[in-house]
Amino acid sequence: MSKIDIEMTAEFASDVVLGIPYAYWLHKQNKLGKVRVCKGMKPFYYFAEDIEEAFEERTLDNSIGLKDVPNKWLHNSEAGGRRHGVIDYSEWECPPFREHYRNNLFDDLKPFVVVNNIYNIEPGDDGYRTYRYFDMKNLCEIFNYLTNSGYTIVYKRPDNTEFALDQNEYITNSENVTSKLKATITGHGIMNDWELCGLYEKVHLINDLIDKHDMDYSTFNLRLFAETEGFVTINGGGSQFCACFGKPMVIYTMKGPELRPGYLEQADSYIKMLSNAEVHPVFDFWEEHEKNGGRNYNLLNETIAKVF
Question: What pTM value is reported for the model?
């Protein structure tokens, strides 16, 4: 039987949802040949026998990044002939990440919740800017509620040095916009989100834990996510990765295709098909923030309280 070689250089979200499940499906059919992926992705393709981390950069051009996979677009819409968030599953199966990466490395943290944040520049109708992120008020309220409820928190917000970058992440690094994620904390002065974690005994930065365990970034994430009680996450590639582990997820969505009706709620949307995780979307349209006086913190907090 002839084998099928694939290369994956698309953005991380498309790699998780369109690349890895296709490669795993080929593996299950004994059809998977040579796999060439971006730096740091080998642990995600753990099932591949012949794999090379061949690429230092990702591309947002799907004609290049997704040239070897059957699904060419992640964010299907009704206008394109397929329902929002639903892809072709005929050659598609998400690997059992949770079962494969199960471990006891984090027993001292349990029960713990992963809070998954991002802070990147991305294009919009009003130009390039940051849209999707937990701000400092979000983080204070999330940290306070979860720690007071008996959970430990592992906080993840990459600095875009940990993995192969796409064009938006390169722009983010060149503009140093992450320095803007700061606020005045009573009694402590101006702090950023990483420094905020240090005020809580039960909040840990993921990068500190990676250093402690002396493990590569991707393998650590996979092992950590396999043992968490669930996720509080921003929509996007990080949330799609979270959706691979069958754990409850609160997805805070302010901008993106996930705002389309049914995208995150349908039983056969890819976000649920990845592992049948419980998905609890919180929609807070950024275009309405000015009219509504800012973010709807109450809606996010109420949803987190229902889930955890």
Answer: 0.93
